């Protein structure tokens, strides 16, 4: 009996294997940190940062009159907690610019004759333009609108809220879903996916670049030959720019053919911005490569960076729905800025001035990662 | 001018001193063997000399260039062959050589590669992946790649580990041929026969340089006496001798036993009763380099960790 079980399965041998496995796990610090870090990070990010019904969205008000009905309407909208009027626009064109650059999510226009029409009982109108490039972010704010606005108006007229139902329809709320009138979520997701795909592959591939040399022992030889750190870095990074270019072409063509995503803006502007973004990514990957000792660690570090990029960049969940600290974290991720650029250019037809600030931040990432990588790169084996 | 001239090199990793005040001189055109047990600091010393590591203390010149400030110039004129094969196994032989030739800016590239392939006798296997080569061929490829840019100094780190005797012989013939052309060679090895093919040897143990000179110098300076014992049941004699005062080493060599000690009189006294046996002969023998090294190793503190 014992001899039979001993031949097939022995707890003593299993014990030896388990012990060995745990020792190796403990020695690999980065893996160990990942095992604790990833679940914790996911929990905190999912739990606290993500809110699919964002409140307090920046809005611009275009109101030429300052009568009591206009004021009542504005304060009612603010009281829903969905709208935060950061900007008072003088003209519709000014408001339009604010929306194109992504400064505001809504433009609320209360016509000059609003007060007069309410007073005369002549069905008044207000216009709400929502940035529908991210349909889910604005849907809550739009859906509560009709009821809230009507009630506010009735209160201002001194009527009881109870009779509000009866009076419904008196106020006409005109909603324009800008850039994506049908509220198709693919318009939001597919351009974003380009950023996510690039982030995933570019960072991962370049993060292996140096660790592969170290693991295979070719690093020692490379360092003993006369190649400078900058030459080695560019030699590692540039080939992946080509890979990135192929990916960009594939995704852009597919987004047109398979998903019929509109492309309003300038292709050359978008491609230039993508170049800066990809450069930032490959340099980030290369920096990881100078930190990780094995390809496995490089993979894990890539993933460690990838997760918050997906969750906090505004790709999966509305950026504006996140609390301040999560937005601040999102700001230091290249993907966040790239998503703003690609959505603005593809869906809103934004010109360079509207995205200049975001491109500038991406360029800053390029400079920082390049500096970091060169600083981290060891010309010697010390 | 000496090809290598370093004084009091110190390298520490953490609290462990791997190279401990090593001073070394290698003249131009000389082949110097670098010997010592595993973990004694040979590789670290060689890496310092080719600029892969910066010494914590000490300084020196390699090919007239300062070790600390002229790393790039040293790299251009030194050929370094690593202990482990460190060319790209997923590139072909030709592609590896091309890569090296272009890094050293050898022009025209194709001419250098073709000549090197021809000298190696690998022209027909140019398109074979380097990873598929046997150990001996990998070593030949690595050497060829290291000398393609015509370095003035060749640093070889255990180049013949795991290589068959014929390939080793050919390798050493090649090294001597290169040295005749003016190339200076510092080669680390564990093999005594290889040490004896060097003009001079340096013995390092646990980071400290213990001996330097020609093989004869090193053996003579060690001041050891060796007796060769032959006869039946040598294993019993060996067991009996072990631990006797004056007997420092007892080692079987084929059908004989080498008994080594640093004090001749004590050693003779220890051997007196065995010498008296009729079936056993005890004759004075020549101390070998290996005997000297074993003596060195026994005498130095253990630094392996």
TrEMBL record, chain A:
TM segment ranges: 30-50, 189-211, 232-255, 261-286, 298-319, 354-375
User: Which PROSITE patterns does the protein's record reference?
Assistant: ABC_TM2
Statement: the UniProt record of this protein carries the keyword Transmembrane:
yes
Its localization reads: Cell inner membrane; Cell membrane
The protein's predominant localisation is membrane
Q: What is this protein called?
A: Transport permease protein
Domain ABC transmembrane type-2, which positions?
151-380
- What is the topology of this protein in the membrane according to its UniProt annotation? Multi-pass membrane protein
The record's listing under Pfam families reads:
ABC2_membrane_3 (PF12698)
Identify the InterPro entries for this entry: ABC-2_transporter_component, ABC2_TM, ABC2_TM_bact-type, ABC_2_transport
Q: Which UniProt keywords apply?
A: Cell membrane, Membrane, Transmembrane, Transmembrane helix, Transport
Q: Does the keyword Nucleotide-binding apply?
A: no
Q: Which family does it belong to?
A: Belongs to the ABC-2 integral membrane protein family.
TrEMBL record, chain B:
- Keywords, A to Z? ATP-binding, Nucleotide-binding
Task: Please state every residue range assigned to the domain named ABC transporter.
Answer: 4-231
Report the superkingdom from the record: Bacteria
A molecular function annotated in GO for this UniProt entry is: ATP binding
Name by which UniProt lists this protein: ABC-2 type transport system ATP-binding protein
Q: Which CDD domains match?
A: ABC_DR_subfamily_A
> What InterPro entries does the record tag this protein with?
AAA+_ATPase, ABC_transporter-like_ATP-bd, ABC_transporter-like_CS, P-loop_NTPase
* One Pfam family this sequence matches: ABC_tran
Membership in a protein family: Belongs to the ABC transporter superfamily.
Q: What organism is recorded for this protein? A: Aminobacter niigataensis
SMART domains to which the protein is assigned, alphabetical: AAA
């Amino acid at each position: 009996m014992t001899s039979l079980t001993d031949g097939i399965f022995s707890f003593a041998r299993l014990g030896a294997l388990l012990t060995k496995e745990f020792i190796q796990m403990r020695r690999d610090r980065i893996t160990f940190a990942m095992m604790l870090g990833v679940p914790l990070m996911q929990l905190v990010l999912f739990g606290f940062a993500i809110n699919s019904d964002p409140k307090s969205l920046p809005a611009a008000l275009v109101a030429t009159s300052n009568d009591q009905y206009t004021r009542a309407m504005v304060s009612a909208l603010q009281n829903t907690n969905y709208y935060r009027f950061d900007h008072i626009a003088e003209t519709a064109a000014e408001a339009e610019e604010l929306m194109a650059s992504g400064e505001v999510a809504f433009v609320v226009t209360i016509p000059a004759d609003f007060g007069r029409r309410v007073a005369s009982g002549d069905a008044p109108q207000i216009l709400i333009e929502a940035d529908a490039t991210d349909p889910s972010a604005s849907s809550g704010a739009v859906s509560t609108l009709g009821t809230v606005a009507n009630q506010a108006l009735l209160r201002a007229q001194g009527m009881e809220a109870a009779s509000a139902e009866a009076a419904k329809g008196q106020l006409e709320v005109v909603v324009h879903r800008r850039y994506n009138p049908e509220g198709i979520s693919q318009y939001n997701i597919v351009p974003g996916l380009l950023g996510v795909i690039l982030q995933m592959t570019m960072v991962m591939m370049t993060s292996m670049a140096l660790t592969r040399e170290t693991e295979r022992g070719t690093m020692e030889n490379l360092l003993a030959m006369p190649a400078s750190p900058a030459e080695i870095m560019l030699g590692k990074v540039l080939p992946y720019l080509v890979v990135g270019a192929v990916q960009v072409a594939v995704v852009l063509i597919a987004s047109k053919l398979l998903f019929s995503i509109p492309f309003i803006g300038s292709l050359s502007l978008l491609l230039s911005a993508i170049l800066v973004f990809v450069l930032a990514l490959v340099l980030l990957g290369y920096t990881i490569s100078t930190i990780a000792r094995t390809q496995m660690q490089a993979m894990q570090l890539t993933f460690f960076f990838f997760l918050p990029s997906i969750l906090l960049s505004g790709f999966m969940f509305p950026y504006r729905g996140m609390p301040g600290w999560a937005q601040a974290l999102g700001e230091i991720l290249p993907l966040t800025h790239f998503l703003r650029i690609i959505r603005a250019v593809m869906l809103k037809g934004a010109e360079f001035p509207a995205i200049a600030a975001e491109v500038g931040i991406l360029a800053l990432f390029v400079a920082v990662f390049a500096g970091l990588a060169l600083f981290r790169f060891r010309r010697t084996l010390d | 001018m000496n090809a290598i001239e370093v004084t009091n090199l110190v390298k520490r990793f953490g609290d462990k001193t791997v190279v401990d005040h090593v001073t070394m001189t290698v003249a131009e055109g000389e082949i110097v063997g670098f010997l010592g047990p595993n973990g004694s600091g040979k590789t670290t010393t060689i890496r310092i000399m080719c600029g892969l590591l910066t010494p914590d203390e000490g300084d020196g010149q390699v090919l007239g260039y300062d070790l600390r400030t002229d790393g790039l110039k040293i790299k251009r004129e030194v050929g370094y062959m690593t202990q482990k094969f460190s060319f790209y196994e997923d590139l072909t032989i030709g592609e590896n050589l091309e890569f090296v030739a272009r890094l050293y800016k050898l022009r025209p590239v194709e001419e250098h590669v073709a000549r090197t392939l021809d000298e190696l006798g690998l022209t027909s296997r140019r398109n074979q992946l380097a990873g598929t080569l046997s150990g001996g061929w990998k070593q030949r490829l690595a050497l060829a790649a290291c000398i393609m840019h015509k370095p003035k100094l060749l640093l070889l780190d255990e180049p013949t580990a795991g290589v068959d005797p014929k390939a080793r012989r050919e390798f050493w013939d090649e090294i001597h041929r290169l040295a005749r052309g003016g190339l200076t060679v510092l080669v680390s090895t564990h093999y005594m026969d290889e040490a004896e093919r060097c003009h001079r040897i340096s013995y390092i143990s646990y980071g400290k340089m213990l001996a330097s000179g020609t093989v004869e110098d090193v053996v003579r300076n060690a001041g050891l006496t060796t007796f060769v014992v032959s006869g039946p049941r040598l294993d019993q004699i060996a067991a009996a001798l072990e631990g006797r005062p004056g007997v420092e080493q007892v080692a079987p060599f084929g059908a004989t036993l080498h008994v080594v000690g640093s004090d001749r009189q004590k050693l003779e006294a220890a051997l007196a009763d065995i010498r008296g046996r009729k079936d056993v002969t005890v004759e004075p023998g020549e101390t070998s380099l290996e005997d000297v090294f074993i003596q060195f190793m026994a005498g130095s503190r253990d630094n392996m960790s």
